[in-house]
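ok so i was messing around last nite and threw this chain in just to see what happens. nothing serious, just curious
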Amino acid sequence: MDELSDTLLNQLYRVNCPIKYEEENDRYIIDVRAVANCNGGLRFQCPLCLYRKGTESGFKARGQPFTNSTALYHNHGLGYGSRASHCSTQAKKYYNLADKNFEFNLVKDISYVSCPFKQ
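result:
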C-alpha cells in the first residue's frame, strides 16, 4: 500500500471505505457499502467519482475536483461481491489509479475504518 497516494488514502478514510491488496491477483480491493435500487440491482456511492451539474464530470480541466462536486452513484447488477470499477479517467488520474488494477467489493455493511496513514 506504500505506492498508493495520500490523496486516495485520505479520501477512502473520509468516506469509510477500507482498502486491501490481494497479492495472488495483483489488485486492490475497495470495500463499499451497497444498497438495493428500484430495479432490484445494487447501487453504491463511489468514493472516487464526482458529479457537478452542468459539467461532464466533477473535475476541472486541470484535473482538480470542483469544491461543490457531489459523489456519483454507480449501479451494478444483482448480488454482493467484487465488481470492476466504472470510474472516470479523470478520477483515476487524480487519485493516481490509472495504472493500478482495482475493484470494488460490494458489501452490506462496513465497520469503522481506522486511519493508518497521514492526514
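not much to say yet. The chain has a mean pLDDT of 82.
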